[in-house]
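Hey, resending since the last one bounced:
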Amino acid sequence: MLLSRALEPKARVRKLEGSTSLVELTGPAKHTERLQLVPWGTSIPKPSSWGVVWIIRDGAPKLRQMLRARGESFVDLAGAVRVDMPHLVVDRTDLAPVRPPRLRKRPADPFADRSSSVVRVLLGDRIGRRRGVRELATESRVDPARVSRVVRALSDLGLVRFQRTGRAASVWLETPDPLLERWTNVYSWTSNVALAVHAPIGDPRRFVLRLGDVLGPRRWALTLHAGAAQVAPHAPWDRVHVYVDATKPEELGAIAADAEWPAAREGKLVLLTPFYRTSLWQGVGEVHGAPVVSNLQLVLDLWHHPERGREQAEHVLDTLIRPVWGVKS
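The structure tokens again:
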């Protein structure tokens, strides 16, 4: 817009089809120049042979002078344009400012770490229970603004019901299965960073009770078949998967080294750095002397596990989660 205002009628400006940053200028004697609009401060994209017009916002006079001295073209949204072409030089500072359109915020990802805390609350209660946004924020420990974005995203996907009455709004689930299915489509236990090690497990049930002595004050929790065996045993298991409250994969290596557990691809102990660094710990509880992730997290982790994971997930779902929903298995 500013280029057109500054150059017409001496030159015609045309945006190239299929692009938001490439324009063609046709100047005197029908001389044509293709230019690329580049935000000031970013690298020049290829092809670098194209002319570059820097886009700046409320540029300081010193910045404009520097660009002029270097013979570079720019568009300042505050109302200034300089174009330096072989057959045309235009330098204007008398144009009306242009306010760029406000970018729409990307919709919230309801299955991101903190946002998933909202989904965990919704899937952890009976079908049809209505909550206000603030109540949902309190229970999920997520700020109300984020909760509103998550609810809006879920509503747009048709996964929750949302009703506004005056200034009040309520959210509820009518059918939880589509929401859970959507989550399992975008998450897998392999999203976690894993380190398999050789450890003196022996009897896995006794070993998990000794894990706390090795891991010390760190938070940890059993998952996959080792976790499911504590709350709803169904499939046989001989491998222990345990989440450790570590922020870097290197910390897992340090834990293994201190315990003298050598790394091994087929090791029976698998340490996991949680993909859900915050929300994973929501609902962790002690069962038979060992911390276990929530029933919902067990289902999420087991869903895509190749060793009878789906079978065990369905068992946890039918015996522990559907009754909470009020659904008969």
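Residues 2-92 form one domain.

Sorry for the duplicate.
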